[in-house]
Design brief:
The chain has 331 residues and is of the alpha/beta class. The chain is 31% helix and 21% strand. The strands form four sheets. An eight-stranded mixed beta sheet has the order 4-1-5-6-7-8-11-12. The protein has a four-stranded parallel beta sheet with strand order 13-14-15-16, with helices on both faces. The structure holds D-aspartic acid. The site of D-aspartic acid has 9 residues, from loops.
Length: 331
């Protein structure tokens, strides 16, 4: 039994400390897996690949799509699953990006650490062990890309990083975790709905990393919309994180409507959970008004995941109808 493991950096891979220049990602995949007690007893051969060791803030769409392609090749060559170790900061976005294009039944499991290896109670080894167990388990199949930390199994579609330091930071506020790892057993309690994988625009984004630029604008109290004006000239799409169920100050409504004539503009909620509405409020700047002006309803997708989906679609050359249909499916 062979599981491919890709090491991309993050807190799980740092070394150094006070008296040095601070912690930086340095440990290799072999270092990370060597620190995991019990992993050799699983009977799983880990095929470890060091892609890069960076803070996850530096990861790009093109690099992540390359990792997914390499994991896909590993599965086609007989791996029963794949694990990606990376920083937790952008993991909710990278895992969702991977989920959107992952075509296999075999699990693709993302993990990381909140306590670095120099600290008492570092959680990296336990998270890697749990991730490998899920990647090697029949129960991990047909679930798409997963995030496994703190012995919880989350669907990439729903997971959020919800705390800046807690080891229990990953949560799926709209759906709850899919399952848990209990005494080493993978227990899956719910199955996420899967969709046809989207085409991967890896080649186009590798050639032009600035292609399909998507802005994310978080609406705030007394927002005068000045920042939105820059979006028209610099971006190919926009995600708006509106108040509550998808509302903006009335002064912004015509600006957003004008933008929506030139580029896809997706309406989401800045609240962190729950859906934007379609058909309840009627004031200028309400969800009904904005949808009438041509904005796309983001549904249950949070602003970060909506941005991932919109950029992936734009980079693949999707037109308006395809974009609306994809948000209707995934949102
Ligand atoms: N250093 C951060 C990152 O690379 C945090 C982490 O890994 O948890 O995302």
């Amino acid at each position: 039994m062979n599981v491919a493991l890709f090491a991309l950096g993050g807190t799980i891979s740092v070394s150094g400390g006070p008296g040095h220049d601070g912690l930086v990602p340095r440990l290799t995949g072999a270092d990370i897996t060597a620190a995991v007690p019990g992993v050799t007893e699983l009977g799983v051969k880990l095929d470890v690949r060091d892609t890069q060791a960076v803070p996850s803030a530096n990861l790009t769409f093109a690099e992540m799509l390359d990792v997914v392609a390499a994991a896909s090749t590993a599965v086609r060559n007989g791996a029963i699953g794949a694990v990606v170790t990376q920083g937790t900061d952008t993991l909710e976005e990278t895992a969702f990006l991977a989920d959107l294009v992952w075509p296999h039944e075999e699990p693709l499991v993302f993990t990381g650490a909140m306590r670095n290896p120099t600290l008492a109670g570092a959680d990296g080894p336990a998270n890697v062990l749990a991730a490998v167990r899920v990647a090697a388990s029949d129960h991990g199949r047909s679930l798409g890309a997963l995030v496994v930390l703190n012995d919880e199994i989350h669907a990439a579609r729903w997971v959020r990083k919800a705390h800046s330091t807690s080891t229990a930071t990953f949560a799926s506020p709209n759906a709850g975790p899919l399952g848990q790892v209990v005494e080493g057993r993978v227990r899956v309690l719910a199955m996420p709905r899967r969709h046809e994988p989207l085409p991967s625009p890896a080649g186009r984004l590798a050639e032009r990393p600035d292609a399909a630029r998507v802005a994310l604008h978080v609406v705030a109290l007394d927002d005068d919309g000045a920042l939105l004006r820059a979006v028209a000239d610099t971006c190919d799409g926009l995600v708006v994180a509106g108040f509550g169920v998808g509302h903006v100050p009335s002064a912004l409504a015509p600006e957003l409507g004008a933008l929506a004539e030139h580029m896809p503009v997706v309406l989401t909620s800045r609240t962190g959970s729950g859906s934007v509405l379609r058909n309840t409020y009627g004031a200028v700047g309400s969800e009904r008004d904005l949808l009438r002006r041509g904005l796309v309803n983001g549904g249950l997708l949070d602003p970060y995941k909506a941005r991932v989906l919109l950029r992936l679609l734009l980079a693949s050359g999707a037109g308006r109808e395809e974009i609306s249909a994809a948000f209707a499916r995934h949102g």
